Automatic annotation (TrEMBL):
It is found in: Membrane. Keywords: Membrane, Transmembrane, Transmembrane helix. Residues 614-623 have a biased composition (Basic and acidic residues). One of its GO terms (cellular component) is membrane. This is STAS domain-containing protein. Residues 20-41, 600-623 are annotated as: Disordered. Residues 529-595 form the STAS domain. It is a multi-pass membrane protein. It comes from Anopheles farauti.
């Protein structure tokens, strides 16, 4: 009977901890509520659920443009026009270059820039965020689609959008919290180095080799071994473009705003448009040399770019590779972990950028996930590569005085103009110039200075270890493996506190009671049960019959295993001759644990019922 009652008590404790049926069990009895009261409660709960659903799905909530467009005026339009054009001049050359990182023709980057900018106008909540191709997404795309047809990239973008929409619908944005700041820093720094290493071949004019995942060091060593094959024309042009980009970046510093405001503003605009200026000058030079140079252009060119926007097409159809038809499901199975890692990294980047630029740092993460998912799903229907927010372009929008997300419309129209009119001229863009643009763009992502700060308090060596593991594995085995390894190592620290909980122990001398005080930190879940039992029983055995007082003031969570362990621990301490009291127990847990309050704290009572009378031995034990 006692065993059955013990199981009943444990089941009641579990229900109470989960918030189901507080106060219902062998120690309590409640009269059932009348059917009218239950029906009223059910009706109220249903009404509240429907109200919340209507609020979540309201057009003004899911289409933020309906909210801010009512206050739009001429001053906003002028500011957005300037910011949008400035952003477009930055986005177009970057999009062309990012497509080359992913191993795609240049137009795929422009498709992504156009659709990302256009969709975010209607669904975005942060005015500065610029959705489009990024170096990070391009590298992740290359990791999973290298050597495969472009249709694999389109399916990856479509699947990533679906995952992002699901994360938004189920409010799973918190998953990015499992990626710590040191891991994020290592991941982005390694990504920057990998991109720089991959672009060295284009910068030096080396013959292109098939894409591989041999790692950063193999790529750099391969470039070093083939230095004698470098083309003088590509090397000279690439180095010149790189120097010019750096010089234009620091151009506004020549004339401080305090000395000449208008001239400083002009130089600032020139600096923002440096990518477009360098690409335009290089293309004009290439076109001129193709007409006048006897031996043709002395450096490699980008080649033909397909003009216009492709027709709408659902990316769920099979494709033909050679003489074999590959179905949509087969494509997704070949993409493997990329279906989860690519959207996870995209969400991490986009939410981080949104938080950096949002007013007061408040971001509707759910809406941002939905917006990003729609950008990828709709974009994939127009053959776009995976997209996310770009920090550099978002910073350009912020510096340009953007007022609303409508600035993305002007960027999209500028991109559409480039696709419709300028694509024949994209043929003359030198590859060395695009390599220089990429190297200059990703150089700012390097964050090696964090290594000096990590070992200092309040940081810990575990942060340095997670940074080192993520950085090294990214360079050696690829960014997706490095990210997972970094996340795994960074989780060791919080898990350590749960598996190996610390406890402050001291002897408190009365009056009225002398006892051993034990305060675990931070809580008690099943991984830390054995550790706490070892600590308590060691003191109980050594100091018996001194009472043990377990301070629960710092407990933040309890699970079923912990509840059962506390009851068993109380019995084991009692066998050593000293009782165990619980103090600072939350009111809800007092009811869940069926505790009885005494002068010195809470104790576990022995379960009894009115139907069973205790035996003589039970009376003796209770005394």
């Amino acid at each position: 009977m006692q065993t059955v009652l013990g199981v009943m008590v444990e089941e009641e404790e579990l229900r109470a901890l989960q918030g189901e049926g507080h106060g219902v069990g062998p120690y309590h009895h409640e009269e059932p509520k009348d059917s009218g009261s239950l029906s009223s409660l059910s009706s109220d709960a249903t009404k509240r659920w429907w109200e919340r659903l209507r609020s979540e799905c309201s057009p003004s909530r899911r289409l933020p443009i309906l909210t801010w467009i009512r206050r739009y005026d001429g001053e906003d339009a002028l500011s957005d026009l300037i910011a949008g054009v400035t952003l477009g001049l930055t986005m177009i050359p970057q999009s062309i270059a990012y497509a080359t990182i992913a191993g795609l023709p240049s137009q795929y980057g422009l498709y992504a820039a156009f659709m990302g900018s256009l969709v975010y106008v209607f669904c975005g909540t942060v005015r500065e965020v610029s959705i489009g191709p990024t170096s990070l997404m391009s590298l992740m795309t290359l990791e999973y689609t290298a050597g495969r047809p472009p249709e694999y990239v389109i399916v990856l973008a479509f699947a990533s959008g679906l995952v992002e929409l699901a994360m938004g619908a189920f409010r799973l944005g918190f998953l990015v919290c499992f990626i710590s700041v040191p891991v994020t820093s290592a991941f982005t720094s390694a990504t920057a180095l990998i991109i720089i290493g991959a672009q060295l071949g284009n910068l030096l004019g080396l013959p292109r080799l098939p894409a591989s995942d041999s790692g950063f060091f193999s790529t750099v060593s391969g470039v070093v071994r083939r230095l004698q094959e470098a083309n003088v024309g590509d090397t000279t042009l690439g180095a010149s473009c790189l120097v010019l980009l750096v010089a234009l970046q620091f151009l506004p510093r020549l004339v401080p705003a305090s000395h000449h405001r208008r001239l400083h503003r002009l130089l600032w605009y020139i600096s923002l448009a440096r990518n477009a200026i360098v690409v335009l000058v290089s293309a004009l030079l290439a076109h001129h040399l193709s007409q006048t140079w006897p031996n043709g252009v002395p450096f490699r060119l980008s080649g033909n770019v397909e003009p216009g926007i492709p027709a709408f097409e659902w990316p769920v159809r099979g494709i033909t590779v050679g003489n074999t038809t590959v179905s949509f499901l087969e494509i997704t199975s070949e993409l493997g972990s990329g279906l989860l890692l690519v959207p996870l990294v995209a969400v991490l980047a986009n939410v981080a950028i949104a938080k950096a630029f949002a007013t007061d740092g408040v971001v509707d993460a759910t809406q941002e996930l939905i917006a990003l998912g729609l950008c990828n799903v709709v974009g994939s229907c127009f053959r776009a590569m995976p997209t996310t927010g770009a920090f550099t372009r978002s910073a350009v929008s912020h510096a340009s005085g953007v007022r609303t997300p409508l600035s993305g419309l002007y960027s999209a129209l500028l991109t559409l103009l480039a696709l419709g009119v300028l694509t024949p001229h994209f043929y003359y863009i030198p590859r060395a110039t695009l390599a220089a643009v990429l190297i200059a763009a990703v150089a700012s992502m390097l964050d090696l200075a964090i290594v000096r700060r990590l070992p200092r308090p309040p940081a810990s060596l575990s942060d340095l270890l997670s940074w080192t593991v993520c950085f090294a594995v990214c360079l050696l085995r690829g960014v997706e493996v490095g990210l997972l390894c970094g996340m795994g190592v960074s989780l060791f620290e919080p898990l350590r506190h749960w598996v190996w909980p610390r406890a402050e122990r001291s002897t408190v001398r009365g009056p009225p009671l002398t006892y051993r005080h034990i305060r675990p930190n931070p809580g008690l879940l099943y991984p830390g049960v054995d550790r706490l039992r070892t600590l308590v029983l060691a003191d109980a055995r050594r100091l018996a019959p001194l009472p043990i007082v377990l301070d629960c003031g710092q407990f933040v969570a309890l699970d079923y295993s912990a509840v059962r362990a506390l009851r068993e621990l109380s019995e084991e301490v009692t066998r050593f001759g000293g009782p165990m009291f619980l103090r600072n127990v939350q009111p809800a847990w007092q009811k869940a644990l069926q505790l009885r309050e005494t002068e010195h704290g809470f104790v576990f009572p022995r379960p009894t019922t009115n139907e069973t009378k205790p035996t003589g031995r039970d009376r003796k034990d209770s005394v």
